[in-house]
Amino acid sequence: MADLQDELRTATEVDALDALAGPFADEPYEPVSDPDAEPLERAHVILAAHPVADGYSGLPWALRHLPWFDLELGESAVDTDVPRMREGHVGALFWSLHLPEGLDGDPAVGATLEQLDLVKTVVRAHPEGLRLALTAGQATDVHNCGRVAVLLGPAGAAALGDSLGILRSLHALGLRVLTLSGVSWASEAGLTRFGEEVLREMNRLGVLADLSGASADTVRRAFAVSKAPVLFTRSAARALRPHPANLPDDLLAELGAAKGLCMVPLTAEQTGPSVRDVADHLDHLRAVAGPECVGLSGTYDAGTAHPQDLADASCYPHLIAELLRRDWAESGIALLTWGNVQRVLRGADFTARAAQQRREPSTAKIAELDG
């Protein structure tokens, strides 16, 4: 079994790398910008070729409170709309289905379904700007059509109601990321036997595990159990800012070894008050975890304050310009903005295809494994 698991890990990485263009292709990366141009001008050119895959947006919950909105024309009541995403070169956006604290059981399941329905309604109402995507390939196709790809998730673990059948139903409705925290089977004590079975079923389906906010024991067990890459959708470097959702260097190094992805949130609370502070976190994560393991998470419309010059979804070029001033190569920026998310999505898809040939849908119950 260990040999099979090692083979699966290796094949996942190879498939993901071979499927990507640019930095992961056999031929050398070809720069797209003029190195003599101003950093902000270069940033726009690079992002036009390698757009941002934004790891977390609180837009679904924010839209619930608006009586009327039009994201294609522009909506001043939120941080994210189609014109600003185009200005910021956002090519894909993960829409959070997280719920207010305290909801669990049937109310959490029902509220998550309502969030899913809202997202699909919003996307259908804005066909010139938004399209749903379920895979890396679909996200690329949507971007090539001039739209922003909407990916569903992360949702909270409470949305499952401790049922693998509900997990499969949510996946069938489009869910692609689930946060493993805040439930009995993924707690400060780590993953229980049922929690490990949930993670295996997520691997079989192609649902990515989000570990932002999870305990260190849960994180390490997820690294060991998951055959697909894992995500941290909103985590930065604890060595630079001691926020509980930020990661210490030992976990960042383990993340790099596991070929996961840490998506740095653009929030003053977690990364600092300036664009330079965010760039410091990106430098640190790249040095500790590796350039293939760092991504971006705007965390817009999630009720948090943002660093100066990064107030909304239009501001990504300012961050990329700062990285260019720090001598980041175009190939590294291409990984940061688009390539690393593509790798993780493709890795999850490959793992799911392989697992479905070897594993039937799990019928495990929490009472049987954790009772």
TrEMBL record:
Query: What is the organism lineage in this UniProt record?
Result: Bacteria, Bacillati, Actinomycetota, Actinomycetes, Kitasatosporales
Q: Name one GO molecular function term.
A: metallodipeptidase activity
Coiled-coil residue spans? none
Instruction: List, alphabetically, the InterPro entries matched.
Output: Metal_Hydrolase, Pept_M19
**What is the protein's name according to its record?**
Peptidase M19
Write down a Pfam family by its short name: Peptidase_M19
GO biological process annotation, one example: proteolysis
